[in-house]
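Morning. Coffee machine broken again, so started the prediction first thing and wrote up yesterday's gels while waiting. Chain of 517 residues, entered below exactly as on the submission form.
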Amino acid sequence: MRRRKRASEAALTRRDLSLGLVAGALLPFPARAGQLFDVRAFGAKGDGRTIDSGAINAAIAAAARAGGGAVLIPPGRYLCFSIELKSRVTIQLAKGAVIEAADPARHAGQYDLPEDADQLYQDFGHSHWRNSLIWGEEVEDAAIVGPGLIHGLGLTRDGPGARWKAQTGERPLSMQGMTDAQIAALEPAATAMRGKGNKAIAFRNGRNIRLAGFSMLKCGHFAILATGTRDLTIRDLTIDTERDGIDLDCVQDALVDNCHVNTPNDDAIVVKASYALGRAIAAERVTIRRCAVSGYDLGTMLDGSRRMTQELAPDRDRVTGRIKLGTESNGGYRDILIEDCSFTHCRGLALETVDGGVMEHVVARRLTMRDITTAPIFLRLGDRRRGPPGTGIGAIRDVTISDVEAIGIDHRYPAAIAGLAGHPIENVRLANIRLTYDGGGTGADAARRPEEHPGAYPEPSMFGPLPAWGLWVRHARGLTIDGLQLAVSAPDARPPILLDDAPNSTIFRTPFWRGRD
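Came back before lunch.
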């Protein structure tokens, strides 16, 4: 175990050095950023009524032709449809500058049409990038920097889901041989998305991209979607939005640092490895550090009021707002570091692989959690296998979670590690974990034997209230627990710890635990 831990931490250290994270260093700034292109010189009004995306795109094009430069967005409100970011261009949002997403139902114009992309194994939002407020494809050495605001007022949070069918994993026979455009024409939901925008910022591939110092409000399906992007730095952002905050899909060498992300209805910071680029690609060498995630009422983190009147997310569980690996997981994850982050009034840390990918060498450390609405820690290996024929069951191995303190946890959902029969989660280490639950579990809860649900969408609630109040483990091998303090605020009839099919487990410094044969 020590050799595995040292190898994993060494890999993370090498990754930090390669990213230039030592002593707070930033990735190289885009070339020739000294050349300034003021969007007002290209006709932008910033009056909140004129559609300014044409002028901003003209300024970006001029900067690109000049070999690179900074496109200045001065104070004002710039009503926009799609803006295409180009290589070696920095968009500089001045203090008092707001880029507002136009609404095609109210304003003349539309967002760029979505690509002819295959959305067979992931939903529409993950499969398209151009139908966004700001997008870039194969962009290199580019940036968007603050301190202004991106307000996705005219974006939609909706979009059709994947066309994948669990029983075949293939297109229906009636659709085989058709192009994606032909299929989309047959689908009212996809057709209804034409001309609409559902993301604030989206990147497909590209390299050396920096997002820093601005705020984002109400940004549709995704505030930020980066797919297949390398050398990505996201730093010092404040995001308050109605669905996903930051989605890192199939990325390599990425840093998310010192961001505040509030998402009551969906995930705040999430790493994925979908099939959106037409093949399985691992998310590798990703660091999430010094971030705060929450599930306050929409908009109230950004305005400072931090209200908590919303009780449920759209999935009917309590509010979301967490850090997660998953759910789209075809390519798997490798060398992921999550450290020095806080979770407030939201779900806890979730590490999931259900679509055939392998999760390995994950370190999560120094996390604080308050008012946790489902499980504080949730590891799930599932068997959804939403992928092409031949997709198998993935794996989770070599995960270390340490120095976690969580209080005010929903009593129904203890920390959970749930593999599959014959496919255990392997070599998980929990160290210096302190969890305080609300308490209130009953004798009936203690007697429950949760069903396996191998193909179900992975959430702590998928098993119902669990038969332990502190830690529940099923189908895991080589679990090590070194320092686990459990407490309840009210009496609970369940045992604090329950291990079911967990061979080769080692437990130190944990006064109460119970196993099941």
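The longest strand covers residues 358-372. Going to sketch it on the whiteboard this afternoon.
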